[in-house]
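Checklist before submission:
- one chain only
- standard amino acids only
- sequence pasted in full

Submission:
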Amino acid sequence: MDAQNKEVDALVHKITGLHAAIAKLPSLSPSPDVDALFTDLVTVCVPPSPVDVTKLGPEAQEMREGLIRLCSEAEGKLEAHYSYMLAAFDNPLDHLGIFPYYSNYINLSKLEYELLARYVPGGIAPARVAFIGSGPLPFSSYVLAARHLPDTMFDNYDLCGAANDRASKLFRADKDVGARMSFHTADVADLAGELAAYDVVFLAALVGMAAEDKAKVIAHLGAHMADGAALVVRSAHGARGFLYPIVDPQDIGRGGFEVLAVCHPDDDVVNSVIIAQKSKDMHANEHRNGRGGQQNSNKWLPVVSPPCRFGEMVADATQKRKEFANAEVAF
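Returned file contents:
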């Protein structure tokens, strides 16, 4: 335990130093200094680590919250920079590889699609999908539309009108995917009746960065999404929680959803992925997920085979109980 504590202390000390250096930068727009510091940060945070960032002291928590805000700002500036560069091409979609992390989006979207196909009852063939927090480079929507969901309409939502303008220009020369992409400037809190039209809603990692804000967003989605619709929430695990907010699956349950699967990748896909489904019985789902009843625990979260090599995956208590029930019937 002492060795583990020392490892966590050393990690937090290293990340605190990087946070201080990043906070002193005059700008977070792409530059050699900015790129070098964030490369160092990702290199430190991505490997498996025993750290549980939710249990760190107040000083470390304050540092982490500030670091996530800096990461969010830098990510926005990086995406805006490359969106502008791509828009200068006659067909921007032919040049997506110039973005240094494009392959990460390919892998993340593949993972999300395979999780949906595997864990949503009846499979997945959505007519309409919403992506909340799409930004100026809507790579996730594009990869899903082009590689996995060729008949699906995508509605991309972002708070920033300029980001949507940049994003829409990337699809001007594509008659297939471009015809299935639309962009809307809106706060998710202002969406209501629109949400009932979607078979799947994706929630980007940086929408609602504070835990209480994320929980409010999820509860709003739970109040307005159609029964049976799927929700894909991007989260983080271990030291990756210094880069992105961590979402508690119980907050998803309390928001009116049944958590179907949780996946923590162990490769260059930084985000964890949580797959959930809008529950038809919100009260019963709250009871299952921790309000006044048996909370999810590791004994009810079995490790199951991933659809591809993407680290640890767990299914929720309901699926485990169904497996036990099926086994009993078989005997």
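Reviewer check: The beta strands are 128-132, 153-158, 181-185, 200-203, 230-235, 257-264, 272-278, 312-315.
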